[in-house]
Known about the structure:
Layout (H helix, E strand, L loop, with lengths): L3 H7 L3 H5 L8 E2 L2 E2 L1 E2 L10 H14 L9 H21 L7 E4 L2 H16 L5 E5 L8 H10 L2 E5 L9 H7 L4 E7 L11 H10 L3 E5 L11 H4 L3 E5 L10 E5 L1 H6 L10 E4 L4 E3 L13 H17 L1 H20 L4 E4 L8 E6 L4 H9 L3 E2 L1 E3 L4 H6 L5 E5 L6 H18 L1
Parallel strand pairs: 3-15, 5-6, 5-7, 7-8, 8-9
Antiparallel strand pairs: 1-2, 4-10, 9-10, 11-12, 13-14, 14-17, 16-17
The structure holds pyridoxal-5'-phosphate (PLP).
Amino acid sequence: MRSARAEIALAPDVRRVREDFPALRQTVHGHPLVYLDNAATTQKPQAVLDALMSFYTRDCANVHRGVHLLSERSTAAYEGARETVRRFLNAADTREIVFTRGATESINLVAQTYGRANLRAGDEILISGLEHHSNIVPWQMLAAEKGASLRVAPIDDRGDIVLEEYEKLLGPRTVMVALSHVSNALGTINPVRRMIEMAHRVGAVALIDGAQAVPHLKVDVRNLDCDFYAFSGHKVFGPTGIGALYGKARLLEAMPPWQGGGDMIRSVTFEKTTFNDPPYKFEAGTPHIAGAIGLGAAIDYVTGIGLEQIGVWERELLAYGAQELARVPGVRLIGTAREKAAVLSFVLEGVHAHDIATILDRQGIAIRAGHHCAQPVMERFGVAATSRASFAFYNTRLEIDALVEGLGQVKEIFE
Ligand code: PLP
């Protein structure tokens, strides 16, 4: 075990890192911005902004079809970004990386292709009580269409999935398991490797929603042995409107396409269309070329800092934040899982989460209030909403101090 001090020595130089993020330099309502809403979306480093600008000012052309130089450059940059995503996830082949609009679209793609082709009436889809709506609703829709049923593994009072219950719910009817790697509402890091192994034992296919994992953890899809892995670019310091789906090559090959259009075909006549190979089979129409290139730049930026270093600093922020919040009378943390990413969800006695967020905003502090697109999690803890501070590697202890001070002012107003 490394000592705490040795760990801190490994942390990124936060002051220098912050200079890479123009948005962090602004003031809000006359106060320096304290941005603690990173689970909703992250700010973008200059390297990402430069990549977008460079594409639109120099290389803007459609991909795959042109023979002119700009099209060659744009195709090379787009496919280069696919290779960057492959390396980031440690997938075996770029054929396994499909660009999508984000985690939501990646999950819907799997539900509507793999799911539609493989589910029968009476089959079961197993999710957990921690899921974001985007990893609930697509499965509910599929289950309704197919006469299948949705089963839900419960969570305990800390916000951990109850593994024994999860295991009991797996059975010969389980065709699909869909689990978040990290919970957006509580920060719980799920033991997905073990859970995937259990799913495979009953012959189910496992999709992991990695939207909240990739900004914080080193993900290795081959080590996890997941069948599908979904994430969004904007949560990992990239542009909005772009994300990716990893799928094992043999599954993607066997799956029917989802949307029809240009690029996803090999040949078209009015009688018959033959489809392209993965990943293009799943990328109908002009893709978000600039977005993919921006995502590649974001991944290069994050890996340049190093996810291990990021983890060290974020664990420090999480521990400090939990300790300082606990000092505020009336604050109750929601979600105290054994393994957590840098998310602190809390309620403050007698004050609605929206009032907290509004008052903090007047002090330049951006947090999120609400159900975090995870209403079943709120229900499980008997609250309508929580306030959520979620950290990235560019956050500081001073910003946590500002949050705690801000909460003090909230209390003064309501006392
Ligand atoms: N899954 C989780 C765990 C999330 O936190 C989110 C977004 O908050 C999503 C999926 C959906 O991501 P997007 O809206 O980028 O598709």
